[in-house]
Amino acid sequence: MKVVEINSLVLAYLGDVIYENYVRRFLIRQGFAHVDELQKNAVKYVSAKSQAKYLKMMIEDGFLTDDELVVVKRARNNKSNSHPKNCDVVTYKNATGLEALLGYLDLSGNQDRVFEIMNYILEE
User: Fold this and answer.
1) How many beta carbons lie within 10 A of that of residue 88, not counting itself?
2) What pLDDT digit, counting tens, does each position of 61-90 carry?
3) Which class for 55: exposed (0-12), middle (13-18), buried (19 or more C-beta within 10 A)?
4) DSSP code at position 9
5) Using CA atoms, how far apart are residues 6 and 87, in angstroms rounded to an integer?
């Protein structure tokens, strides 16, 4: 199966783990040494609202390629209407788009681009 044929929610499932891993490593390197501190600071990056914000910034800055935008849009347009209670559907779908992009890039063997995207977010 080609990566582009994988269900976008499956890509987001993988991308969520990749995103969370980068954020946790970043915070640990920043010197946060207690789990409660790590968790409190991780929310600044890991919430659907934050992920949607970073995706919007990357789109507005022209940071994403046309192919990457196709992956994001496919994930955003997924038929699922479920979302967490703490955010609206549009925000959740945008966050899912970012996660799907990371999953797509990872499975495509493009870890360098995953790194660039995560640096854009974490160094913002």
Assistant:
1) 13
2) 999 999 999 999 999 988 766 666 678 999
3) buried
4) H
5) 26
Residue with tokens 């955003």: 76
Domain ranges of the chain: 3-122
Active site residues: 16
Third-level CATH fold of 3-122? Ribonuclease iii, N-terminal Endonuclease Domain; Chain A (1.10.1520)
Q: What is the pTM of this model?
A: 0.92
- Terminal C-alpha separation, the chain: 35
CA distance 6 to 71: 11
pLDDT tens profile 3-41: 988 999 999 999 999 999 999 999 999 999 899 999 999
- Nearest residue to 48 via CA among 12, 74, 77: 12
Alpha-carbon separation of residue 80 from 83, 90, 92, 96, 122 (angstroms): 8, 11, 11, 11, 29
31 dihedral zone (left: phi>0; alpha: psi -120 to 50; beta): left
- Two tokens, residue 122: 């974490």
